[in-house]
Amino acid sequence: MPKKEQELKLLVTKETYNALLVYADPVAPVLQQTNYYFDMPDFYMGKNGVMLRVREENGVWILCAKIKQTSDSAAVSSIELEQEIAANVFEAGRTNPEVLVSLLPKEGQDAIRRLVSPSTLIIRGTLRNERRKLQLIEGYTCELDRTSLPEDRTEYELEIEGIENEDACQHVMDAISSLGYSFTVNQKSKYQRLQEAISPFSS
């Protein structure tokens, strides 16, 4: 089933990241994620708001398409189409992305095929990410990420899911500020930031 995802993305410093670790959920596992992004050489899909990704997460392979939506708040809004696949399906899809696209719901297939022919896609970039679930703000899913970008660059990000509107964004940001933490609101996805890191003059 398609899922509408609205999340607030906040970039934080390494120092703030380390301080927020005290809120890590002691039961939830630390997720080691490797994200493989499929696109055209010039990131044509990404530049047009569509993302195709396979994520390996603690030994589980997850196929995902995201279709960016307009948002009236600081939150990033997208339609997310996600399903678990076998490792050998990913291996087949590395050289024949049509295999992956054909497994998506019609909405995801149509969004991709409107832009490109799936057979022309390649793995355009890879990101490694370490994710921890936090017990930080009641009523919201809070996840703390440490992401490795090209050229040995590391970014630290707090993602809050379940944001309904601008009032909710402000409530969450006020709550984090009241705890003494500073941040920068970020409306770019990890994939957009990867695009900029790989092709800094083409975004």
UniProtKB/TrEMBL annotation:
<dbReference type="Pfam" id="PF01928">
    <property type="entry name" value="CYTH"/>
</dbReference>
<feature type="domain" description="CYTH">
    <location>
        <begin position="3"/>
        <end position="197"/>
    </location>
</feature>
<protein>
    <submittedName>
        <fullName>Adenylate cyclase</fullName>
    </submittedName>
</protein>
<dbReference type="InterPro" id="IPR033469">
    <property type="entry name" value="CYTH-like_dom_sf"/>
</dbReference>
<dbReference type="InterPro" id="IPR023577">
    <property type="entry name" value="CYTH_domain"/>
</dbReference>
